[in-house]
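yo

u said u wanted the structure for the complex thing, so here. seqs first:
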Amino acid sequence: MKISSIEDLKKVKESGIKSLYPKKPKFRFGAASCGSGAGIEATRNAMDDARIPEKIGRSSTVGCIGACYAEPLVELYIPRKGRILFKNVGVEEGKEIINAAAKGKIKKKKVFCKIENEYCVINDEKRELSEFPLTDEIESPFEEGYLDEILKKIPEISELDYFKNQEKIVLRNAGYINPENIEEYIARSGYETLFKAFQMDPEEIIKEVSNSKLRGRGGAGFPIGRKWKLCKDSEGENKYVISNGDEGDPGAYMDRVVLESDPHSMIEGMIIGAYTIGANEGFIFIRNEYPKAVKRLENAIEQAEKHGILGKNILGSNFDFKIEISRGGGAFVCGEETALMSAIEGRLPTPRPKPPYPTESGLWGQPTLINNVKSWANIPVILSRGSNFLAGLGTERSGGTKVFSLVGDVRRRGLIEVRMGTSLEDIIVGIGDAKTEEVKAVQTGGPSGGFIPTDFFDTPLDYETLTELGSIMGSGGLVVAGENTCMVDMALYFLNFTLSESCGQCTPCREGLERMRDILADITEGDAEIKDLELLRKLADYIEDASLCGLGKTAPRPVLTTLDHFEEEYREHVEEKTCRAGVCDFGGDRE
Amino acid sequence: MSIDGKKVTASEGRTILDVASEIGIDIPTHCHKEPFEPTGVCRICLVEIRSPEGESELHTACTYPVREGLEVKTDTERVKRTRKLTAELLLARCPDSEAVKKLAEEVGVEKTRFSKKDLDCTLCGLCSRACKTASGNSIITFVNRGPDREIITPFEIFPSECKGCGACAEICPTDAIEMVEVEDSEEK
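structre next:
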């Protein structure tokens, strides 16, 4: 149905709540790409085959709750009780779990945690699942006393070390709703903020966004409110909004999870942005290597159109807005905003010098508001809860939370969201369960981020502190390098990546990075001299200073920071031809 | 605005390079030639600009639009150091090109520390821009990325749209494009 009033939205919400909390128990499967990779489809097929329809309702899909280390993740929803999550559920375990459930039993072996209390950050609503569904009749094979005994022993999700210091704003619905069902998004108060936004003056919205201290989540950290103001004040025949979902960093998958788990949170933010600056057309640029995200996004746009949330006279207002998906062709540099716009226009994705900035002259030369997927997803929360709420979660200079993909040498890997200003120690040790003495350094910010050694792990993270440490926030990759990592080899790995992804148009990035790569390769092969280290640093400084776009300007970071903090490893390679990590092979010269 | 301390009045829409050359300040260029749109890719014309936040940044003079209060410096140590390294890298790429040798000399570079590649083309892209202007088509353009970037015809096939106007060869600063006489179009 087309929603044109708040009453209409309420009706859809009721339907969504029925879908979230049906009267029969059901299983939900964590089926983002990470879950698929871990084998959730096989588990799901086996469990669906074993389902007894009289006892257990039809299963559905949820996105990613962030605990990659526990995948495949299966949720058992029990009416008037809540959700029980099972971890590392293979085919056989899955069958055991569903067979037990049909008999009213809980298979304890693979139990991960429970969710008895759900929280909707959008409207600050706490839902006790013992009250859901709201209808009188429920059908459940579980005996009340038995279940209570069991549930008592299962930790609530918010008590787990992995989750207890997390704050879910961007990922507020990830793992809770079916990303292919707009009603479930609305059931968690989705699109209510859009009604509110349409009642607001655009200047008022900009003020709220500015006061929230939200900064660009693509990595550069430009204040979002200021960007919106610049774009609103720019004159042009048309204006555009763009969501940048060209996430290409090795080991990073924040945007993918948002798009695969909760696409409407971003779409709602985009509509608000478009209304604010006066744009009627938007693009989502997404890398083609994310087929599942593309599919869910296409589905989300279609459902939004059907419900009158995209298209003409959105939600009964006078505002028109449509969104088109533009898929990348596999070039990392497309994440750079001017290259991205060039790609949407159908041209080669090469960055161009700024100024002019996209807010004045962007897509087809028109004022364009381009933000990262996660930046957009923050917007509904800012407007619904007020700017102070988001500002209060972060630091003096930077509001809100930050989503990181925590990977590498940690025991608990996954996608996490923490308050801005959280220390690396709290993340890597507290959430990731790594031992500081087993860690050498962490790389923040993707392939062009710097390595930060453990000495600095107590630093509260924000854009400025990371820059001071020689790294960048980037879009949020955190790669933990354990004690068996060779820092020279690591620097070489990332330099090879940025070099192969450089567009190759400007001299410093194309020629300079290649020369740096050659020197690094020589070092790892024992063919370098000590003076090469000096040339390596000179080249790095030069490329940072002289490159045309952000890719080149940041690409030398892994080399510069490892030179700063692990110079002795470089020297050992050059002078003694040894690699303490035992990674580099010096062609039999080693003793 | 000011360039190297000299106060200048310039109209909007012009670039730093335009204004500097008018008052006799020499900024080396390589990938830019009038009347084509500048692209700022060779980076030899970098100058130092104080940003509104008070930080100093390097920008290409050929692309940077002038504005009120702009402070430009064209001969700081940072500018010289950067230009030299750019010239060294280009010289290693095209060691036999007279144009590149001359450019290097202009910024004070005699030889390069890097191993030589013996290529003809600096990837300045002027040929591609000239082609588009002269023919209305992009007969030759860039392909690939990173170190593999090169100028080529589509799929390396000689397209019938090429009328042999020679604009590309004419504008190429390093003489990397040569015009040859052919009789049979098959052999083009």
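The interface with chain A takes residues 39-44, 46, 58-60, 63-65, 78, 81-82, 85-86, 89-90, 92-93, 113-115, 122-123, 125, 141-142, 144-149 of chain B (CB under 8 Å). The radius of gyration of chain B is 19 Å.
cya
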